[in-house]
Design a protein that fits this description.
Elements: H1 2-6, H2 19-40, H3 44-64, H4 69-92, H5 98-153, E1 159-165, E2 171-177, H6 189-197, E3 204-209, E4 215-221, E5 248-252, E6 258-261, E7 268-271, H7 278-291, E8 295-300, H8 309-318, E9 328-330, H9 333-353, E10 372-377, H10 385-397, E11 403-409, H11 419-424, E12 427-431, H12 436-442, E13 460-464, E14 476-480, H13 485-496, H14 504-507, H15 518-526, H16 537-540, H17 575-580, H18 587-594, E15 618-622, E16 625-630, H19 642-653, E17 657-659, H20 660-667, H21 671-684, E18 694-697, E19 700-706, H22 707-719
Parallel strand pairs: 7-11, 7-12, 8-9, 8-10, 10-11
Antiparallel strand pairs: 1-2, 2-4, 3-4, 5-6, 5-14, 12-13, 13-14, 15-16, 17-19, 18-19
Helix pairs in contact: 2-4, 2-5, 3-4, 4-5, 8-13, 9-10, 19-22
């Protein structure tokens, strides 16, 4: 019911009439006046006075708008004709007779036809005037450019074939046919032309090759588009239904043309330093994808779902949108695993379940009933390695079944973006940076020629994306649209009713069973239950399913428990180990005491019953880490450092994530000494903590550890033996 009420029509009080309907309304008013006036005894002179006043007002308005004299006369005649008919009907009291009604109907049809014809004639004349004015301007510019090229570069035999203005009057393009003895302009031509034209700092000159050899395109930017704040267009014509095949608009290029990225066949990589406007650009991309009716948008943002909350507000809090704009929001690492498992299983299900649709192409055709799935990942540096591997699987396998990923990070380096993500992301967006090398790393083709000073303002950046011919062009500067939370809420209501749904084939998988109850798991974390609008009830009224958690890795298990990924037995400390654990102390002395049992030298190790020899068990350890051992496998101790194993148990017991200070307190250790040793154990096997070691619990982020990170180190220690 909430969804229906949200879509209820509203009254439109605007006067959106065509010329023909306006003429019909005037004729209807005249007939009503004649009918009522004949009954009340209205004098005929009143009708003539009204018609005369209307004709006079119409002639003044037409002259102000510079309409042709013939059009002015025709409109005045129409007013006087209507007034004459009304006066005649009032004089004879015959407005309701068949004769007078027939004349009225004939006059009405003639007035509607005349009005339509006059408007079409005026539009044609206006277009012709604009074309003549434009041609006059282009001819003048062509002559000036011909003289300019001769004066600056001593060209002879060149020809200026045309000058085409850009949208928004921000610049123009000059097409020049160069002489055969001088096929190119000199290297300093850009600087000389900019100085000669006295362009502003934000303007510029760009010289490109034409369609044939010998043709040169000179692009002149006369207005600094990048310096302006460009609000996202949100008028009714700008919110009509689009298709994901049209691409996603991001902003404007220096020539005021729209910058668009393609996300049907390729993934997109968005990078930018803090404060560059990256989050705003991501929300603009959200708006472009949600404007379509054949795209489902999912979010992964484990730092608080910041990119999702503005789009969910109208549904979750206000209740003005009947459905969630974002189909799935993974606000925690655990929820992100469930989302990725469902998407990966859905990719496989689409490949086998939609074979009948692969007739003309080896890739699915996106429709409202078979939508594209776009997974937007923000702050990818915060994700653990196991989750990155699942995203790599989606990136590598989802293209044919229209599942793509838009990845956001602070940098495009290997420590943030995986090799698969970068390789498969042919769409690249680099927001404002301070180091040109970062852009060169992001854009392997043409990036070396990028100057960050070409996009110095907040919200500016560079982008490259495949065109209609699947050719990736060199990166170009652009200014992202500005989208505000107020706009997002308004657009959410507009776009809610066009949202598609995932088909049964995609969800008919083992992980898909957790899809229906996703909001039952997510909303209590994002909102207080008392704040939720009634529109959320259909999504939270059922049973909420929680997948079991692997006690070793802390990763949700969404497949058959008999699978190889089934949860391993939880390691529990024995009673003797608990009794031998020392009491609270501080500093590295306590660590040495705790791990003294693991430091066994050959002299301290008793020989086996065989009296030594090859079968003797010999162990050397350094601070709890086995560095050398001999003997049979059954005699060898666990290669996993005791400190690492116990830390993993504490983090798993705490729910999969724990701050460093709390973990040190659980061991009864000094936080600094504990962190130093545990980090060394991770580095020794090449395991890095995601997000530079920052862990978010609730609304607060501190240095900490994830169960998944510690489990990765445990596996590495076991594999080294």
């Amino acid at each position: 019911m909430a969804a229906k009420s949200a879509a209820a029509p509203v009254l439109d009080w605007s006067w959106n009439h065509t010329p023909a309907t306006s003429a019909a309304l005037v004729a209807g008013g005249a007939y009503a006046l004649a009918a009522t006036g004949s009954v009340t005894g209205l004098p005929p002179t009143h009708a003539l006075m009204v018609a005369g006043a209307g004709a006079a007002a119409q002639s003044v308005a037409d002259m102000v708008q510079h309409r042709p004299a013939g059009h002015i006369v025709a409109r005045c005649a129409a007013w006087l004709t209507a007034g004459g008919w009304t006066a005649s009907a009032l004089a004879d009291h015959t407005p309701l007779t068949w004769g007078m009604t027939g004349w009225w109907a004939a006059g009405t049809v003639a007035g509607m036809t005349l009005a339509r014809g006059l408007v079409q004639a005026e539009e044609t004349a206006r277009t012709e005037r604009h074309q003549r004015k434009l041609q006059k301007w282009a001819n003048k510019q062509a002559g000036e450019w011909h003289d300019r090229l001769h004066r600056l570069f001593r060209l002879e035999g060149h020809q200026v074939d045309g000058v085409r203005p850009w949208k928004g009057d921000v610049g123009y393009t000059v097409l020049v046919t160069m002489p055969s003895d001088t096929p190119e302009l000199p290297a300093d031509a850009v600087r000389k032309l900019a100085v000669d034209l006295r362009l502003p700092k934000g303007g510029g000159i760009q010289i490109l090759d034409g369609e044939t050899y010998g043709q040169t395109l000179i692009r002149v930017t006369a207005v600094d588009v990048l310096a302006q704040q460009i609000d996202l267009p949100d008028t009714p014509p700008d919110t009509t239904v689009t298709s994901i095949y049209d691409g996603i608009p991001l902003g404007l290029k220096p020539d005021a043309e729209e910058a668009r990225i393609a996300v049907v066949d390729d993934c997109v990589l968005v990078v930018g330093q803090t404060g560059s406007g990256k989050t705003n650009t991501v929300n603009v991309a959200n708006a472009g994808a949600l404007r379509t009716n054949n795209t489902i948008v999912m979010h992964i943002d484990v730092t608080g779902a910041g990119i999702s909350l503005p789009w969910l507000h109208t549904w979750a809090s206000d209740g003005t949108a009947g459905v969630p704009l974002i189909d799935w929001t993974a606000d925690t690492v655990e929820e992100a695993h469930i989302l990725c498992d469902t998407v990966i299983a859905g990719i496989g299900a689409r490949k086998t379940g939609h074979q009948d649709k692969l007739t003309e192409d080896d890739k699915l055709t996106v429709t409202h009933d078979l939508p594209e799935v776009l997974v937007v990942v923000d702050e990818i540096a915060e994700l653990p390695p196991a989750l990155l591997r699942k995203l790599d699987t989606i990136v590598n396998t989802g293209r044919a079944v229209r599942v793509r990923v838009l990845i956001c990070g602070l940098r495009a380096t290997q420590d943030v973006i995986t090799a698969a993500m970068k390789k498969q992301s042919r769409g690249r967006v680099g927001m404002r940076v301070s180091d040109p090398e970062e852009l060169s790393h992001l854009f392997p083709t043409g990036g070396a020629r990028i100057n960050p000073k070409s996009a110095p303002y907040k919200g500016c950046g560079f982008y490259s994306s495949p065109d209609a011919d699947d050719v990736v062009s060199d990166p170009a500067a652009f200014k992202a649209y500005r989208i505000t939370p107020k706009q997002i809420r308004a657009l959410s209501v507009t776009y809610a009713e066009r949202r598609p749904k995932l088909e049964d084939v995609f969800l008919d998988t083992e992980p898909g069973q957790y899809y229906a109850s996703r909001w039952g798991r997510i909303l209590p974390r994002l909102y207080k239950l008392a704040q939720l609008a009634p529109t959320t009830t259909p999504y939270t009224s059922g049973d909420t399913l929680y997948p079991p958690i692997n006690p070793l890795t802390g990763i949700p298990i969404t497949t058959d428990p008999e699978d190889e990924n089934a949860p391993a037995p939880r390691v529990v400390a024995t009673a003797s180990q608990e009794a031998a654990r020392p009491g609270p102390a501080v500093g590295s002395d306590l660590l040495s005491t705790i791990l003294a049992a693991a430091r066994t030298t050959p002299a301290q190790t008793p020989a086996t019953t065989n009296g030594g020899g090859d079968d003797a068990t010999v162990i050397q350890a350094d601070f709890g880490r086995v560095i050398q051992q001999a003997g049979t496998p059954d005699d060898r101790p666990n290669p996993v450092p005791q400190l690492l194993a116990e830390a993993h148990q504490h983090v798993v017991a705490a729910g999969g994530r724990m701050w460093s200070s709390d973990l040190a307190a659980a061991h009864g250790l000094d936080p600094r000494a504990f962190g130093t040793e545990l980090n060394r154990l991770l580095r020794d096997v090449g395991v890095e903590r995601p997000g530079a070691g920052t862990v978010r619990i609730g609304d607060e982020s501190k240095s900490g550890y994830l169960a998944e990170t510690l489990a990765e180190a445990i596996r590495c220690y076991r594999n080294t033996q």
